[in-house]
Amino acid sequence: MSIDFDKKEERQNYLNKKLDDLLDGINDTYGKALTDELASRLENTIKDFDEEVQSLLSNLKVNSEKKEELLEQIKQSQNDESNSKDNSSVQELSEWERRLESIEH
Fold first, then answer.
1. Could you give the CA distance from residue 25 to residue 86 in angstroms, rounded to a whole number?
2. Number of Cα atoms under 13 Å in the Cβ half of residue 21
3. pLDDT category of residue 21 using cuts at 50, 70 and 90
4. Rounded mean pLDDT of 82-88?
5. Among 24, 46, 48, 99, which residue carries the largest CB count within 10 Å?
6. Is 90 part of a structural domain of the chain?
7. Is residue 2 part of a domain?
8. Which conformational region is residue 86 in: left (phi greater than 0), alpha (psi within -120 to 50 degrees), or beta?
9. Which residues of 47-83 are buried (b: 16+ CB within 10 A; e: fewer)?
10. Residue 33 lies in a domain
11. Amino acid 64: pLDDT
12. For position 68, what pLDDT does the model report?
């Protein structure tokens, strides 16, 4: 039997069946109230857990996007620095070449 845990009704049926199996001996003493309370608490626990996981995943996604943006900024800044260094060395070379030309002439 396949259970779709994404559906609330199927989760409740599954939990109720498992609780009924586990609590057969206790049901005579405490009855349906205990089973209902346990099912309610389990459902709330699952709901809280799901909300926390969704929040964590959302935060992880946001932080990952920020990290990617920062990495791109760092790469761009490094490229800009590299380009400016290349330009300055070309200027230095041209000055050096000019000196050499002046000495030759």
1. 83
2. 5
3. confident
4. 63
5. 46
6. yes
7. no
8. alpha
9. eeeeeeeeeeeeeeeeeeeeeeeeeeeeeeeeeeeee
10. yes
11. 95
12. 94
- Model confidence, pTM: 0.48
Give the pair of three-digit tokens for residue 3. Answer: 């259970």
What single DSSP character describes residue 5?
T
Count CB atoms within 10 A of the CB of residue 37: 11
Grade residue 6 by pLDDT with cuts at 50, 70 and 90: confident
**Tokens found for residue 83:** 């380009």
pLDDT at position 28: 64
The full DSSP string for 24-73 is HHHHHHHTHHHHHHHHHHHHHHHHHHHHHHHHHHHHHHHHHHHHHHHHHH
* Residues in CB range of 95: below 8 A, 6 or more apart: none
pLDDT in tens, 38-56: 888 988 999 999 999 999 9
Residue type, 71: L
Per the structure, the count of domains in the chain is 1
